[in-house]
Every structure is written in C-alpha cells, then in structure tokens.
Amino acid sequence: MKIFRKLCILGILAGMIYFIFNYHVIYYKFNFWILKKSHPTYRYTFVNLYGKDPEEVLSIDEFREDGVGDIFLELGLLTERELDRILYLYE
User: Fold this and answer.
1) Angle at 48 between CA 43 and CA 77, to 5 degrees
2) What is the dihedral angle through the alpha carbons of 79, 76, 53, 31, rounded to the nearest 10 degrees?
3) Cβ count within 10 A of residue 75
4) Which of 1-20 are b and which e, b meaning 16 or more Cβ less than 10 Å from the residue's Cβ?
5) Model-level pTM?
6) For 26-35, how does the pLDDT look when each residue is reduced to its tens digit (9 = 90+)?
7) Domain ranges across the chain
8) 61-90 residue pLDDT tens
9) Taking the mean position of all CA atoms in its chain, how far away is CA 68?
C-alpha cells in the first residue's frame, strides 16, 4: 500500500511539472485563461495582466506566439487595429 501512495504522489508531482512547463495561466482581475505554450519552458507560467501595458506584454516573444493578444482583444484593452500595429512592430 505504501508503494501505491508513493506512485500516486509521484504521478501528481509529474503532472504539476508538466503543467508548469507547458501552459500559461493568465489572469486579469477575476478572469482566468489557460494557454498552451509554444514550447516547454518554466518562464511566464503565472501572469497577471492587471495594470500592465499591452505593448509591454506583447513585446515578449512567447506571449505573441501563444496568443495573449487575443485576450487583450476579448477584454477590450486593445482594438484589432492596435493589436495589428503592435504585432507588426515585432515581426
């Protein structure tokens, strides 16, 4: 029985590590989004958009690749035109 418990704990830890390396958790006030990362990394796993300038956030390659701009559109913090302008700057 002890070995089963250890295997369960190891499985849970492996799942948590997998999640941290493969997903962004983006939050803004009381809204949450989970986005798949374009490549596994531990960077930028938990990100708060509250009070952040959209251009500053989208200057980070990982966020542009993973679609954080769509969240800014959904929140009404950017218009489609502004998003296109910002994305054009970093192409």
Assistant:
1) 120
2) -150
3) 14
4) eeeeeeeeeeeeeeeeeeee
5) 0.80
6) 999 999 999 9
7) 2-89
8) 999 999 899 999 999 999 999 999 999 988
9) 7
